[in-house]
Records
---
Amino acid sequence: MKNPRAVDRLCHATGLLLVLSGLVHLGVFAVDGGPWAGPVSWRKPVTFGLSFGLTLIAITWVTSYLRVGPRLRSALLLVFAADCVVEVGGITLQAWRRVPSHLNMETPFDTAVSMTLAVGGGVLVALLTVFAVASFRHRPTGPAGMPLAVRSGFAILLVALASGAAMIARGVVLTRTGHQEAAYASTAPLKPLHGVSLHAVLVLPALAWLLSRWPWSDSPWSERTRRRIVATAVGCYAVAVAGAGAWAVLTYR
C-alpha cells in the first residue's frame, strides 16, 4: 500500500478498533468483575487496548508533520500498526485464558506469547526511535508551537519506551531466576512514569493544533503567544514526568 492517505486511514481505523476493544473489555469487567490490579485481570486488555489505540492514532497524525519520505513513513506505520495489533491481541488472549500475559513462562505456549510480546515491544522501541530521531534531524512542519510540541512529545515518549524496556528486562531476569511473584511486583514503581510519558506525543501536538484553530477571540493570538503557551505546557509535562521518575526511584526495590 503506497498511498500515504490510504495508510493513514488504515492506521486510524486500526487504532479505533483497538480503542473499541479496550472499551468492550471495560464492559466485560463490569459484568464479570474480578480484581482490577494484578497480572491476571481485565484491566490489561482495557488499558492496553485504549493506550495502543490512542498511540497508533497519535503517531499516525503526528508523523504527518515530520520531514520523512512518504514511502518510508508508510512502511514504518504499517509495521507499527501490525505490531500494535499483535501486542493487544496477545494480552487480550491471555486475559481470556485467565493467565498473565507478560513474564509468564509456565508453559511453552505462555512462553511463546510472552516472548512475542517482548519482541514486539522491541520493535515498537525501534520504530518510534526512528520517528523521534527524524523529528530532531529536520524541523517538523505545522503551525506555531507544533515543531516544539512534536519534538518534545517524541523526547518524552523515549522516556516511556526506556521505562517500558526496563520493566520487561527486570521482570525477565527475576522470572528466569525463579522469582515469579517478585517479577510481577517489580514493574509497579515504573508504571506511573511509563503511563505519564507515553501520551505526551498526543497531548502536546494536540494543544498546538487547538491553539492554531480554536476561536479564542475575534483576532487570533500571535504566533509568539502560541509558542509560549506550548513551551509552558512542555515545561509542566516535563515536571510531571520528573515527579513520576522521582517516585519510581524512591519506591524501586
Note: The radius of gyration is 19 Å.
---
Amino acid sequence: MSMLEAVRVTRNFGGLCAVNAVSFAVEQGEIFGLIGPNGAGKTTLFNLVTGLTEVSDGVVNFQGARLSGLKPHQIAAKGIARTFQNIRLFANLSALENVMISQHIHTRANVFDSILGTPRMRREEKMVREKAMSLLELVGLADRADDQARNFSYGDQRRLEIARALALEPTMLLLDEPGAGMNTNEKAALSDFIRQIRQQFDLTILLIEHHVPLVMGLCDRIAVLHFGQLIALGVPQDVQRDPAVIEAYLGDT
C-alpha cells in the first residue's frame, strides 16, 4: 500500500482546470519531487492533498484512507504536515512560540486544566517547550528562540517553518519550495538536512522545488506537471531525458 495516492485528481476554478486528472503514488520513505513551470498546478495539488482546496473530481488517499472531504486540521491529525510557498508564520510571536503552537493537536490539557494550572497542564507545557527547543536546535535556531519571527531572514523563516511542521509529528512532510531564496551552498545544505530528517523522523517527503539540480540530486522519483497535467513520472535520470519534459520545462532552465 502506498503512503499517498492521488487517483485522477482534478480541480476546476470556474472555466480553468488547474489540475487535470492527475494520478501518482508516493511510497513510504520516499523523497518524491513535484516539478514544472510556474502555473503548472503544483501548489494547487499540495492544497488538494492538505484540504485547503476541495477536490473537484478524483480522490486522494493516505495510508489507505480517503482524505478528500476532510478539513485541514483533520488531515494534519492523520500525520501530514506542510510548509508554504509564501511563508505563514505568526510574525509577532517568538520562534519558540511558533513551534509550541503547532503541538496543540497532541496535547490533552483542557480549559479546566489551564484555568486551574493543574499538574497535567504544567507537565504538558514543560514537554511542549522542551520539544520545541529541540526542534529549534535541529534547524539551527535555538539561540534565537525568543526572537520574533518577523525579525528572521527569509532563509531562517524557512527553517523555522520546517521546525513548526515537524512539531506536528508527521509521518509525511510536504515542502513547498523549501530552497526558495537560498544560494547554491545553502541549497546543498538543505538537501543534506532533508535527508537527515527523513531518516531521523522516519518521514516520507513530497516536495515542490524549482532548482533542478537540487531535485535531481535529492529525489527518489519525480512527477512533472504542465498546465495541470502529468506529463512524466519516474526516476530523475529518466525524467531528465524525457523529450516532453525538456520541451515544457528543463529546456527553459
Note: Residues 29 and 61 are 16 Å apart (CA to CA).
---
Amino acid sequence: MIELAGLTKRYGRTTAVDHLTFTVRPGVVTGFLGPNGAGKSTTMRMILGLDHPTEGRVTIDGLGYERLPEPLTRVGALLEAKAVHPGRTAHHHLLCLAQSNGIPLGRIDEVLDLVGLSSVAKKRPKGFSLGMGQRLGIASALLGDPKILMFDEPVNGLDPEGIQWIRNLMKHLASSGRTVFVSSHLMSEMALTADHLVVIGQGRLLADTSMAHFIEENARTFVRVRSAEPERLRDVLARAAPEARRRPDGSLEVEGLPAARIGELAAENGLVLHELSPQRASLEEAFMRLTHGTVEYQAREG
C-alpha cells in the first residue's frame, strides 16, 4: 500500500505538488490522471525517493522508500524505459538489478520470457525499438516479484498485441492482491484498465474515487431519441424534460429523463421512434470537464 500525507514539492516559487493526500490500495488498478504539468511525474518520483518532498510524507507499507531492504523485491517501477546502460545486454541489465537486490538469478529468464524478450536477451537495448525498450522496463519492474507496482505510460510504443498484454497483466497483478498504480494520458486505455482513479491538477487533488463514480459525477449523460416527427416529439418531451437539444441529424439529446419513460411518452402520444439509446459518458469527457480549469497549456479552436 502507498500512502501520501500532505505531500508537497516546491521548486523556488513554483509548487509542483500541493499537499496531496491519498492512498493506493492493493487489489485494484489505480489510475493516476492529470493534465501535462499537473505534478504526476514529480509525485511518482517522490514515492520512489528520487525527489525529496518539501513538506509531508509518503510511505510504502509504512516505510519510506529509502528504508526498504532490497527495494526491488517490494516495489517495481517503470518511469523511464530508456534508463538503461547502453553497453549492457538486456540479460546483463537485469542481472545487475538482481544481484544488487538479492533476487534469484533464475528470475531473469522468467521475466524475459514473460515480456517476450527471450530471443533478444543477449542484445544491447540501444538497438531496441521503443516498444522493446518498454518491455525491458516492464521486465525490470517485475524482476523482484514485488507486491507494489508503479507504471508511468506503460503502453508507450507498444503494438496492439502488446497493449492488450500489459492491460491484462496489470489486471492480473491487481486481482492477485498486489498494489498497481498506473499513470497514462490514453483515456481509452485507462477506461479499460483502471478500477479506481486519482486525478490531480496543478499539483492538487481533484478526485479520489471509483471509475464509475468519477464518470457519473463529472460527465454529461443523455438519451438520444429520433422520430419521423421531431417537432411533435420535442413538444411531448418538453413537459417532462426541458433539456432536449435538437441535433443536426434531427435527433434529440434528452437529459434528466430515462429511456424507458421517453418510450412510454412516445407510445402514449402515438409517436413512432426510430432510435432510443442511452448514451454513456466517456472517461475522456469526464476528465476534460473536471480538469478544464487546471490545464497549463490550452490550444484555441479554429
Note: Confidence is low (pLDDT under 50) at residues 297-302.
---
Amino acid sequence: MLGIGIVGLPNVGKSTLFNAITKAQVEAANYPFATIDKNVGVVSVPDDRLAALAALYERNGVLPPIVPTTVEFVDIAGLVKGASQGEGLGNQFLANIREVAAIAHVVRCFEDDDVVHVAGKVDPLADIETIETELLLADLGTLERRREKLQRSAKGNAADAEVLALVDAMIAKLSEGMPARASGVTLPKEIQLLTDKPVVYVCNVAEQDLQTGNAYVDQVRSYAATHGADVVVVSARIEQELSELGEEEAREFLADLGVERSGLERLIETGYRVLSLETFFTAGEKEVRAWTVRAGSTAPQAAGEIHSDMERGFIRAEVVGWDVLVEAGSIAAARAKGLLRTEGKGYVVHDGDVMHILFNV
C-alpha cells in the first residue's frame, strides 16, 4: 500500500486536511501538537476508468461492484525546531517519517489572524527550512555513524572504501543544505535517508487563492524546483467542506469555485507520479477492481498484488488496454478482433492494463 506521511509545523492545516480526506468529522484543535500520535487513514483512489469498465458488465440494469485501489495517508505529529535532537515530539516524528514512502509537506500559504502561527508570522520558506533542516540533521547523524564504521572496515575492503567515498560525498551535499533526493549521489539501498524520500509541498491557501495561488505559493514553487520536489495547491477548509457533501454536490461546489478536481485527487495523482506507481485492473461480472503496482513491474509481480499464490503459480496473463476493451464493447469482442494479448512472465505491466491471470499451484 502507498503510504504518504502528512507533515508540517503546528497549525498549518495538516490535520484539517487529513480529517477532510479521510472524511473524519473531527475539528482540529487550534494549538500545537493537536496530533499527539500518528493517525492513519486509508482512502479510495478516484479513477473514472472503473465506471467505464463496470458498464461493460452491466446485467439487467445492475452494475458489478466497483473496488478502487487505495492510498494510505499518515497524519504525523507536529514538528518543532530541534526535533533531530529529540525536542518536542521529535523522536516520534522522525520514526513515523521513516515508515512512509513519500512526504506531503503541508505549508501554510494563507493569512488568518484567528489561527496562530507557531513562529508568529506566515513565512512558508522559513517553515520549509525548519522541517528540512531537522531531516537533514537526522540524516547527517545517520551518515556520521555509518562513516565511523566504514572508516575502520574500508582499510582492507575495496567495496567498503567505495561506499565510504559515497557517504562522504552525501555528507558534503547535506551539509550544504541539499536533500539527498536532489544530491546526485546514489547510496546503497540499505542506507535509508529521510531526505531521499519524494516530497510534495502542499500549499494550503485560502478559498480565493485556490485557482490562481498567491505570492507565498510562488515562493514554494521556486524552492521546490531547485530541491527535487513537487507542489500541489489546496485549501484544507474547502477539502473539509467537500468531505461533507455527496458526490454530485461536491462536483457542483468545485464547478462554482472554477476548479475541476479536488485537492485530494490532485495530491493522489502527484503522489503516484513521484512514487512511480501505476494502476491495472481486473474486471468481470462479479467485480471490477483496481490494483496498484510499481512502474516496471512484471505480470507475475502484478499477480502477486492480487494473491501470493498467483505470483508463485503464474502461467500467463490475458491482457488488453482498458480503453481498447471499452471501445471493443466486451472481452469476447476484444478476443474476436485479436485485441486480447497473451503475455508471459517477462511482460511489463502498463498503466490501464486489464488483466486476467492464469495460474496453477
Note: The chain has 13 helices and twelve strands.
